[in-house]
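Summary for the steering committee. The consortium agreed at its last meeting that each partner would contribute one worked example illustrating the joint modelling workflow. Our contribution is presented below. We chose a case with several input lines so that the handling of multiple components could be demonstrated. No manual editing was applied between input and output; the record is shown as generated.
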Amino acid sequence: MRQTITEKILARHYAKKRVKPGDFINAKVDLCLGNDITAPLAISEFEKAGMRSPWNRNRIALVPDHFTPNKDAMSARQCKILQVFSKAHGIRHYFEQGRVGVEHALLPESGLTGPGDLIIGADSHTCTYGALGAFSTGVGSTDLACVMATGRCWFKVPRSVKFIYKGRLPKWSGGKDVILFTIGKIGVDGANYEAMEFTGSVIRRLPMDDRFSICNMAIEAGAKNGIIAPDEITRAYIKQTMGRRYPLYAARWAYLYSDKDADYTDVHEWDMSAMEPQVACPHLPSNVKGVSELKKISIDQSVIGSCTNGRISDLRIAARILKGRRVNSRVRLIVIPATQKIYAQALDEGLLEVFTKAGAAVETPTCGPCLGGHAGILAEGESAIATTNRNFVGRMGSPKSFVYLSNPAVAAASAIKARIAHPAEII
Amino acid sequence: MKIKGSVHKFGDNINTDEIIPARYLNTIDPEVLSGHCMEDADPDFVKKVKKGDIIVAGANFGCGSSREHAPIAIKAAGISCVIAQSFARIFYRNAINIGLAILENGQLAGCIQTGDIIEIDLAAGRIYEPKNDKTYITQPFPEFMQRIVSAGGLMQYVKDSKGI
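What follows is the complete predicted structure of the assembly.
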């Protein structure tokens, strides 16, 4: 039996020629990460188990991004645990305020994640790095503690499902719409425990930022990982982010693909040429409708940011719509560049000026409102459209609030109209 | 291990934001977390729950974030076992890693109500429901996971197997 790209990466990290779905493996990890919510628990487990020092101080990333800038004294204490641990053990990839960003945007742009890597993170959206052709998956804090101690993690090799997207995406639809469409079709547990492999002409044309959005939300279908075989677009991206380590990754191209007759539990094939922007309605990411069906839904807040859609191309598209226009006076538009680098680039390109003059609040990089942490919480009865990834009950604040998920163009257009709007209504 | 307890029933897709909302994640203290357990699914849950009670739910229990605070809150609230039609994968491994008993069974949720008493034989994977005198059989854990569970959680298992 030939192998999928996911199986090939897992086999190499288990020093085997092949692994098959259902196998339990204790695989070598290239990078592990935790944030200000999950790492304190991992550090506590690590210390309780009497571990003296981490397996490799260069392969642990600690990213205080969820409740930062510290929202209260208790959050500050959590962040301090990361800072103290990092200092004590010389953790190389600890990111302090002013350098930190939303983890799944920050680590790829810092050249810490690459094709063929095996990455685990105590954060469910760790599956984002599959966009680079890595095997990456979210785990819990105890798993993170175990990896910090041993450099290894146990996995059950997942079965793979293949998604083939044909045709060409219409104007205003992007990676976010591809993944929302997919979750709408298969459901929030449609790929439970499985590897989602994204292929087809649509994917091959998509820039990296859109690919990150797609793999980021694989977890929203219950998947273990999402993955896109690397190509020239990936190569150009890592050439820029990896620096001296680039040749190591370039050498992996030879095997980072799924064999032609690899085994899939299911193959889905869709033509995407007529897909309008998609919106996930409360309270599940699978409750997906076309944007034109929702034009009567009024909104109180619009959030553009997060590990799903806070990258530079997301901000560019939002700025295109907002340029020379005003956010509706009844709406709070919150724009959060995902990392400091993206923030600086948006500043250079004049995007932050566009947002500010339109009446948006531009925030420092943080997960903030996405998880109802801080800096943009909803009151009872309020509705928001957000470029984030979850719309569960209470996700952005009050358990009696409502979150609609969309791409950044729709979120920007909706902020102008004070209701869910198609970008074509604006320009 | 044998468990007997009163059932709290929940539906499908109970996610980690409902189990322990993110607004309470500025601590890792199990006691504090347990005070908000299931708050956004049932605000009165913590008032009703008693030590040893059992959660029975539908499909995809624990979907959403990776927060281990979710199984920790459930365990600290006194819940002795969670039985669901299916579990989201991160919740599943977190529960095993911290030693919260979980079982997968697709029929039970449709046949019982909140307040019913059930008996569980964890080792045999058997659930007994006295009201209708019905027994349900569940798939036992794979052997590898049983070793983690019997070691008392992942960290202890790692310590034991590495001789640390």
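The longest strand of chain A covers residues 160-166. The mean pLDDT of chain A is 97.
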